[in-house]
Amino acid sequence: MTNHAAHISLDVAGRLATVGGALHLGIERAAANARIRREQAVDSVSELALRLQEAREDQAAALDRAAAAEAALLAARREIAQLREAVRREQAFSAELRSIVGV
After folding, report:
1. What is the pLDDT along the chain (103 residues), one digit of tens a residue?
2. Main-chain dihedrals φ then ψ at residue 2, nearest 5 degrees
């Protein structure tokens, strides 16, 4: 092998090593980026799961408050009905008293 051929061989080998190193770095970087994206996706999913759990807890609390409000409304309606009946009886009693007294 001549000196010129050896020089070309070394040049080609150096270029191949440079290209191979660049490819290796590119592959490593792509793998690292993929790993980071996976970790971010896992973090995002975990955060969404946490938010969903909190939303479900808030919903359950809201449903409990709504049920309590409905019960209070029902009790108030019953009391209103009783008060109306009491007013009706008082008015009837007053009307009867007026007729007795003659007013």
Report:
1. 577 677 777 777 777 678 777 788 888 888 888 888 888 878 888 889 999 999 999 999 999 999 999 999 999 999 999 999 999 999 999 999 999 998 8
2. -85, 170
Q: Could you tell me where the DSSP H helices lie in the chain?
A: 3-101
The two three-digit tokens of residue 103, written as one number: 């007013």
List of residues 6+ apart from 80 with CB closer than 8 A:
none
Q: What angle do CA 31, 37, 40 make, to 5 degrees?
A: 140
Task: Measure the CA–CA gap between 77 and 67, rounded to whole angstroms.
Answer: 15
List the structure tokens of 4.
């010129």
DSSP class of residue 102?
T
- Six-digit token string for 2: 């001549």
- CA distance between the termini of the chain: 141
The phi, psi pair for 43, rounded to 5°, reads -60, -40
Global pTM value: 0.50
